[in-house]
Amino acid sequence: MSIFIDEKTKLVVQGITGRDGSFHSSQMIEYGTQVVAGVTPGKGGQKFEDKVPVFNTMAEAVEATGANASVIYVPATFAADAIIEAGDADVALIVCITEGLPVQDMTRVIPFLAERNIRLIGPNCPGLISPGKSKVGIIPATICAEGRVGLVSRSGTLTYEIVHQLTTSGIGQSTCIGIGGDPIIGTNFIDCLEAFQADDETDAIVMMGEIGGTDEQKAAEYVAANVTKPVVGFIAGQTAPPGRRMGHAGAIISGSAGTAAEKMEAFRKAGIGVMERPADVVKLIKERL
Amino acid sequence: MSIFIDEKTKLVVQGITGRDGSFHSSQMIEYGTQVVAGVTPGKGGQKFEDKVPVFNTMAEAVEATGANASVIYVPATFAADAIIEAGDADVALIVCITEGLPVQDMTRVIPFLAERNIRLIGPNCPGLISPGKSKVGIIPATICAEGRVGLVSRSGTLTYEIVHQLTTSGIGQSTCIGIGGDPIIGTNFIDCLEAFQADDETDAIVMMGEIGGTDEQKAAEYVAANVTKPVVGFIAGQTAPPGRRMGHAGAIISGSAGTAAEKMEAFRKAGIGVMERPADVVKLIKERL
Amino acid sequence: MNLHEYQARELLKEAGIAVPDGDVADTPEAVEKIAERLGGKVVVKAQVHAGGRGKAGGVKLADTAAEAKEHARAILGMEIKGLTVEKVLVAPAEDIATESYVGVIVDRESQRAVVMVSPEGGVDIEEVAAKTPEKIFKVAVDPRYGLLAHEAMGLAFELFDDIKLVRQAAGIISKLYQVFVSSGASLIEINPLVSTPEGTVKALDAKLGVDDNELGRKPKIEALRDLSSEDPSEVDAREAGLSFIKLDGNVGCCVNGAGLAMATMDLVKYYGGDPANFLDIGGSSNPQKVVTALEIITRDKNVKAILFNIFGGITRCDDVANGIVTALDQTEIKVPLVIRLTGTNEAEGIKILEDRGLSALTDMDDAVEKAVAMAKEAA
Amino acid sequence: MNLHEYQARELLKEAGIAVPDGDVADTPEAVEKIAERLGGKVVVKAQVHAGGRGKAGGVKLADTAAEAKEHARAILGMEIKGLTVEKVLVAPAEDIATESYVGVIVDRESQRAVVMVSPEGGVDIEEVAAKTPEKIFKVAVDPRYGLLAHEAMGLAFELFDDIKLVRQAAGIISKLYQVFVSSGASLIEINPLVSTPEGTVKALDAKLGVDDNELGRKPKIEALRDLSSEDPSEVDAREAGLSFIKLDGNVGCCVNGAGLAMATMDLVKYYGGDPANFLDIGGSSNPQKVVTALEIITRDKNVKAILFNIFGGITRCDDVANGIVTALDQTEIKVPLVIRLTGTNEAEGIKILEDRGLSALTDMDDAVEKAVAMAKEAA
Fold first, then answer.
1. Domain extent listing, chain A
2. pLDDT grade for A171, boundaries at 50, 70 and 90
3. Which of C325, D80, D99, D368 could form a disulfide with D121 if both were Cys (CB 3.0 to 4.6 A apart)?
4. Which chain A residue shows the shortest CA-CA distance from D282?
5. Residue D39 placed within a domain
6. What is the CATH number of domain B139-288?
């Protein structure tokens, strides 16, 4: 097992002919992900890399291929529309890589998907990978290894850093998932913790949080109440000044709320192993396995 | 039993201090309907007829009284808002008497109520009465009698006519309901047929249709497939010219569709006893009981 | 309420939909001026609320401004389906590559606004729907989200293959839905939606019907009403809050409630008579409405008897009785009145009538039979 | 992006919300003229993106136009929280009966826009929320329906009893939500919302923060940006598509990804150093971004060493390497560079650097330790 994606995932790439979409589609195909279709309006009928059919609309792509997931690489202005189009085409999982989505667009996307019971990961996220099974998004496959640690992170490249540290220390992963750095996202820490707890191929969980909001605090409460597997966690932004948005739209300390110190304290209270720096992940995980 | 309302119905009157609202509230109270509250913004704290508390909002009214139904007498411009306010206050039944609601307002109201699983009767309807139990709306109580015939109608005064004919011939009613003459309404013929079929205090059903749309045709199919109780029906507008709206926004023959002849034919095919004129109702019902 | 083409295209233009240049005029001279400005090659189109303008000779192409003026002279003042042409629209004659149809209606079945497109444009869409339904593509709009971007694109792909045309059409479809909502329409159509050889998509003709119930809150739309295009009695009735439709018979009918009014007309026919009109005085009537109703009915010289059929609910019998009495005080009614009055405040109503020396029946069949007989007698 | 009060009130006015008369000015003479027009009794308010203007002396009442001019002379050019006052708003001094608060924010928890009102207006709302949370009333708006009429009324009833004031307030709340949506706001506030002794409800002060991600599709809002009120390096960074925040340390950081950038700063601290900035070159970077990033970092004279920490994903290591090489070609960088490069196209990136005689590390801790050491050495 793994969470959210596996070898049965049949993926449509929305924006397959763009610069990022085409680059990462190649990488996903190379990794073995079942990329069954692409969508770019006006390029219906073409083939990507001579094998993946391109459609004008998601509805056509899903009808023709039986796809059950989509990944989105379209520009921010069109990304919310792309999510909604995928939702209407009734895929079970939508992964939105695009960053810069207006947050009000997200307030409209969330209930649309909730009504259809569709999982959204992101936006503004690196996607996810279940090593050896499937990769959806942009996490570099070369840094991953099959194994039994689950990883969930609000960040992109910081995720890679941790995966890299784990892999080079011989610790493989069941699924690595970046949930995104925006204030409103489709899948949160608790959703992932719940899935990892239920996944019998996951033995331990790494949580990479950051300043802003209260998701980590709520996740810590969830861990204390519901997660029996060992969890270790990190909070980025210990040196961030309050009131400034640290790149991610969601990474902002408002007044005295959402600081790294507060979140690390919540982790400690919940029995989560707290990393002082990314490299601590290896030691903390090894202690707990 | 009866359908939709009975002695346990606890009613809020929206627009209780208006001309129509106050007149018909008095009539409902006199009939024995449990009118537990009224709503008129700005008149919160007053009492209607020295006993029914008036509130500023539906939320307050329902919270204070445990009401489970509302009836709406507010002007057309505010009626959709009133329906939505009642829906948000979570009553199980909303009866909208007001006529003249923009049809686009109704397209917005319908999904709002559907999400909350709330029954709307109307708009532009006379409401309903379960003789001897409860009356919600404006059907004159004096013309009704307790009994075992269920009546459903798209019209207001034509309903009274039929009820009057039945009562003066000694045929009482389980529930009489006017579903309204607009193109988009909350409760349709089939909803009522289903409820009457399930109601063990109803032995026969009278359906009063009119020109426009295909609801009567669909109801006829429903009767043929699902209703074992005798049904008699009438279609108003046999002499109506095509393309002209006969008062009711919904009563319009479009091209050759929605004519009285077509609907009467559908009734006959479904085994529904067809009245040539309102007065036939007595004979047709007596034959079938 | 229906808008004229020139009014509808103005609303589309305001919403950012490409419509050809052009202007409306009510004299041949003004038409000539517009045609000159547009370069001479124009189409002159009658502005009336009737379909089949082309077949009736109400739409003409001109090669020069002088020819446009001649056409205008012929079209202005002509009758199309009983309506006099008071205005014409003058627009440049366009080069057309394709003609499609785009429309939005309120659909009773789905209880939603439905956007429809067809690559078969420029013809009667009901005919297309009847003969080749597979050439009509529909989306029922979830009003909670509005017409979604991908829905508009999906429909546009049914009209065009070239992505440049698709995007233009999708934009027009989205904007058309916006106009549908903002104008309180029950029907809005672009037929034909054309593409030009240069690759531009435009709305060549537009039709817009507004839900009468919206007019109270849309004063700008209400202001577009053209009273000259409607029956004066129906205009007066509407202004008084009555619902009135003139028919050809001789039994004037004044009823409360549309269903009962239709049933009353049907019963007049049943008893061998012929209704002169449909008239619903509505719920919550005040006496003045009844006065106006009587005034409108008696305008029709065919009317030989007047039948009141009132079943009081929200309408109160005493209000109606007061209205009848007031009307009789104000004007002499020369045809016989048959009054049927029952329901809410029935006793009060009958008392008012009796005080004035009038009598009332309580049975509908009796009243209708009597009115039919009286009309026959008078005829 | 934050708007100035005078800009925000203009948007409210356009939406039909009652705001007092008044105008903005940047000289004492212009202030005097406005004050004369307004009758002399005015309030002069500094227009800066900072709270606590009143306490800082940036808001003054005047009884005459001459006094207003004097106040303007004092306020224009003053510094409030490090920001220079370039403009003042001059508005009539209002008679005030009550002061309330109305605001709309995007709420992370409910994932919705939340409308908040409080009868405790004119004071810091966060303080009210902390001390007397029962005096704040909220509605989380279902975006599928927008703020519903009864929701606005319900909130307005928390502010007023008199139905005339309630209806005005409900109208303002509804319109405020509309402006929130149409302007792409992440925060909009009226504080205080006042009622006058005559029974009029008005927006006395307005605050509006726009979601930066909306600006691309809201050119009218974007045009309101006041560059003079922002740090020039941050302006340049934003225009280049970089996310940059200046800090006080001496280790310049150039990282891809916000999380990794924060973790890098944290690690600089962990190893005893001090980050000079937060800088995220973003995903999908092109070489030019890296050039600009280096240019901005080196502007800061405190910077003694520059640390690149790149973990390729959507960002490709070769793009970053090319950017570094191009930047070095264009300008001489006088401080040492420590480059950490790993992930997508790592080999290609390292090759590009090596061809230019640069070396790259692959371990983050190694790179940070080295950069901290180099900065200490140079300091």
1. 10-121, 139-288
2. very high
3. D99
4. A247
5. yes
6. 3.40.50.261
